[in-house]
Design brief:
By secondary structure, this protein is α/β, with parallel strands linked by helices. The protein has helices spanning 12-25, 38-47, 54-65, 89-92, 94-101, 119-130, 137-161, 165-169, 191-194, 203-209, 222-232, 245-252, 268-284, 300-323, and strands at residues 3-6, 29-32, 72-74, 77-80, 108-109, 112-114, 183-189, 212-215, 258-264, 288-294.
């Protein structure tokens, strides 16, 4: 049986159930790299040039960790997920970058997804990937349909049950509402930063331990994302812009006392998107916003200090409002 390795980085948190279902339906076995640790990051940093963003360095480290554990490493090239909406260059050239910086990697299993090219090109790309495992086009079609359904179910569970990708992937079915939370905050950003606890120094865990009820982009209804996007930017330009601008705009006006944005240092698209969310927060004046920029040099102590200061500011503001 062919074994496919999937790095636990970049788009893993968004599409893993879909990828898993597709390959299993075609008779392949899937293995996932271990959670990010110090060795993973060090390996990725040592192979990439300094200007490479943190998420790509982490991805390369995960590819290295899969050496000897699989027959192929799955590295998709995601160009576009919607018409005239563009992806970051790191996703466009990811298979070639992986070959260049991890030459000893198992063979790269790649697929190019570009919705801008139309449905026919998309179907051809999926079939080209699937025929490596089966020459039966009907079997590939059924695998693709099952994979898409798995993705839809995954997204629906997060939205309807208020769960994060980590909670769904770990098998949790119900959000714990019995704890005595004293504050509600939203954490927005790309899943590969929000849910990688090593990279963000256990941000979500720290908030939960501190009595903060956390909301994330995956919990926002699609209508809420669309409305917030329309108010702030109109038409989306970047792929996955909704998980930053849409979610940020939605939470600034709904149910939370503050919004924390998590971004990678030096990321051009993220810098623009967080600037728009911050301007929106200043305009509304009813919700606090803080951005956390992460790279391989981000110190845990510095992040904790900023987080504590942000929470203290929100508490003081609430006390002033209550007294006034």
């Amino acid at each position: 049986m062919v074994t496919i390795g999937i790095p636990r980085a970049l788009l893993y948190y968004q599409y893993y159930p879909m990828w898993l279902t597709f390959f299993q339906e075609l008779g392949a076995q899937v293995v996932v790299s271990p959670p990010t640790n110090r060795a993973t990051l060090a390996e990725g940093v040592s192979r990439a040039v300094a200007e490479t963003c943190l998420p790509v360095k982490v991805f390369c480290g995960h590819v290295v960790s899969l050496i000897g554990a699989c027959d192929y490493v799955f590295v998709p090239a995601i160009r576009s997920m919607a018409y005239k909406v563009h992806n970051c260059s790191k996703f466009l050239g990811l298979p070639d970058l992986t070959r260049a910086v991890v030459p000893e990697s198992p063979p790269i299993l790649e697929v190019e997804i570009d919705v801008d090219q139309g449905k026919r090109a998309l179907y051809q790309a999926i079939y080209s990937l699937g025929r490596r495992f089966s020459c039966n086009p009907l079997k590939v079609k059924r695998a693709a349909q099952s994979a898409w359904q798995a993705h839809q179910d995954y997204v629906a569970r997060m939205r309807s049950q208020g769960l994060t990708p980590l909670q769904v992937l770990e098998g949790q079915s119900i959000r714990d509402e019995t704890r005595g939370y004293h504050l509600s905050l939203a954490v927005i950003g790309h899943p590969y930063l929000v849910y990688d606890s090593f990279v963000n120094h256990r941000l979500l865990e720290r908030l939960d331990r501190g009595g903060v009820k956390v909301y994330t982009p995956e919990m926002v209804p699609q209508a809420g994302l669309d409305e917030a996007m329309a108010q702030i930017v109109g038409q989306a330009y970047w792929t996955y812009e909704a998980e930053v601008v849409g979610a940020g705009g939605y939470y600034l006006e709904n149910q939370v006392a503050g919004v924390i944005g998590v971004a990678a240092f030096g990321c051009g698209p993220d810098s623009l998107m967080f600037e728009m969310v911050e301007r929106r927060a200043k305009k509304l004046r009813g919700c606090s916003f803080m951005s956390l920029m992460l790279d391989e040099h981000t110190a845990e102590a510095g992040l904790v200090t900023r987080l504590e200061a942000f929470l203290d500011m929100i508490q003081r503001r609430r006390q002033v409002t209550a007294c006034g």
